[in-house]
Amino acid sequence: MKRYGIRITLPEGSTLSAPHLLGPGWEYFRWFDTEEARERALAGMSRDPRYYRKGDRVEQVLERVERED
User: Fold this and answer.
1) Which domain holds residue 19?
2) What is the pLDDT of residues 9-18, one digit of tens each?
3) Is the model's pTM score more than 0.85?
4) Helices (DSSP H) in 7-64: which residue ranges?
């Protein structure tokens, strides 16, 4: 079982948390075998996407999580 994860949620007040879109309790997890793999992915996810327009921002909150043994 992969132990190291990233929890992705929406910031408070995000328009995407509207009930007809993702909803107020939306969350998503990505899991990795190693802490190093998670940190590499987190670094990539923290950067602004290359093809966004200038001034556009990603609406997501990234949080490190770990599963208990």
Assistant:
1) 4-66
2) 999 999 989 9
3) no
4) 35-46
User: Which single residue is written with the structure tokens 């093809």?
Assistant: 51
3-state SS, residue 12 = coil
How many CB atoms are located within 10 Å of the residue 30 CB? 16
The tokens describing 14, both together, are 């995000």
Phi, psi of 35 (to 5 degrees): -65, -35
For residues 10 and 62, is the Cβ–Cβ distance under 8 A? no
Q: Look at the chain and report how many structural domains it folds into.
A: 1
Closest CA to 2 of 26, 35, 27: 35
Single-letter residue type at 23: G
Question: Among 3, 56, 65, 62, which Cα is nearest to 32's?
Answer: 3
Helix (H) or strand (E) holding 69: none
Confidence class for position 61, pLDDT limits 50, 70, 90: very high
